[in-house]
Amino acid sequence: MKKKILIIVSNANAIGPNNRRTGIFLPEVAHPYAEFSRAGYQIDFASLTGDTPYLDALNLASDPDNLAFLTGKGWEAMQKAGKLSDANIDSYDAVFIPGGLAPMADMPENALLKEVIRKTYERKAIVGAVCHGPVSLLNVKLSNGSYLVNGKNITSFTDEEENAYAVADVPFLLETALTKQGAKFHAAAPWSAHSIADGNLVTGQNPASAKGVAEKMVNILESKKK
């Protein structure tokens, strides 16, 4: 039976006191989409509000997987993303949250998103996120009352990377926030490809890590077939 992946995207298009324009960072959705497609999975999109999401980093469109996403079925499907509250979450084998600065604007406290992440994780389906996408894991409490990230080996966009990129625009530093909730945070060199799987939780540090996150998710899904 074909595996099903739900990509959950932000609806934000601006962030911070200077109204910095933002959206989903193109390679962070396009590269995983390509990996999931190559694996033969069904890929659906949902956004927090059901409104059309925004894309950032269109200047990277010449990358083959980015271009294939923009001109193929990927971007078309993302524009038609359903509303997260309408999604049958239990029917998906994995959820994936791409980054860009947008998730930092509307995902830190979204109650429905936190419940979706909790339920997905607790039923042993896969939760994947990259760059600023792991903000979706922040403030998620499991049924036992502990934070999901507590004691987990994870990564995300690092404080060092943020200080050189958008520290004036984000409401907080993601690495610091995840660590405060008990995450065992692993940082690699800035902008290098770095992804981690801890059980059914898979995270990546930055745009270069998106492909690796998807590859790890596919490996876990394929291992479950055996």
From TrEMBL:
InterPro entries: Class_I_gatase-like, DJ-1/PfpI, Prot/Nucl_acid_deglycase. Pfam families: DJ-1_PfpI. Residues 28-218 form the DJ-1/PfpI domain. Gene3D superfamilies: 3.40.50.880. GO terms for molecular function: glyoxalase III activity; transferase activity. One of its GO terms (biological process) is methylglyoxal catabolic process to D-lactate via S-lactoyl-glutathione. GO terms for cellular component: cytoplasm. Keywords: Glutamine amidotransferase, Lyase, Stress response, Transferase. Belongs to the peptidase C56 family. HSP31-like subfamily. This is Type 1 glutamine amidotransferase domain-containing protein.
